[in-house]
Design goal:
The chain is mainly alpha-helical. The chain has 13 helices and no strands. α2 packs antiparallel against α8 and α3 packs antiparallel against α5. 49% of the residues are buried.
Amino acid sequence: MIKNYIKAARLRTLPLSVSGIIVGSLLAKSNGEFDWIIFTLAILTTIGFQVLSNFANDYGDGVKGTDDNREGEERMVASGAITPKQMKKAMIVTAIITLIVALSLIYLAFGKDNFGYSILFFWLGIASIGAAIKYTVGKLAYGYSGYGDFFVFVFFGLLSVAGSYFLFTKQINFYIFLPAFSIGMLSTAVLNLNNMRDRKNDEKVGKNTIVVKIGGEFAKYYHYYLVGASLLFALGYTTINYTKPIQFLFLIAYIPLLKHLLFVYKNRDEAQLDGQLKIVALSTFLFGILFGIGQVV
């Protein structure tokens, strides 16, 4: 039974989820602000939100019948390996544990001296839990209306990078949003790739993702834009804040991404895109590490 929950947690998505935390934290370190305990709790909180989102996605698509004929990894609720009731309990337990970790993070980062910030981040945590669940759960699930890309961009990119930076520095600046845009767009590219793979099935079951709305061919152009724009924003930040060549170390992460874009361009069988998900997700993780290292070394 435990192995079924591990499968439902989709461990391969976890490196992607922490990429923004790594970037925001290392940018804070480059400004002389860093704490390993805060960093660890931020990583654990983000992983908790991601696992909750994956459980909710498995549950929501499973009870709606969306996953009955899907491509790629087997889903636990749809396959019957985990019942909807069991998955609901797993979601509740995960949400509670994650909220406790998040509250510990908020208290350690802000304490009693910054009560207003504590309240703000508490509500951001509640919003993150809500966003994780409402992606596919309920009649108004935003993943079924084409808003999944927007929420991934905001929570994986803007909130993850800028939020983690603020935990350390207690301040924000405009330039921090440039790498936040990069992470957000690469994360959205992973979702877009997933939706391109599932386009035909999603169309049949009424899951109106952006890919379903604009069609497979235009979804490719959208994909090129997401990856290309992420590079431009990263280059923009690095150029503005340039002090040493190692800051361009992140360009290494775009080598597999360029190969990936060529694969997408040539692809005519959307089911074959499944193997590309890991490439984009791990490339985003690599980007986060290399971009951060380039700022602190």
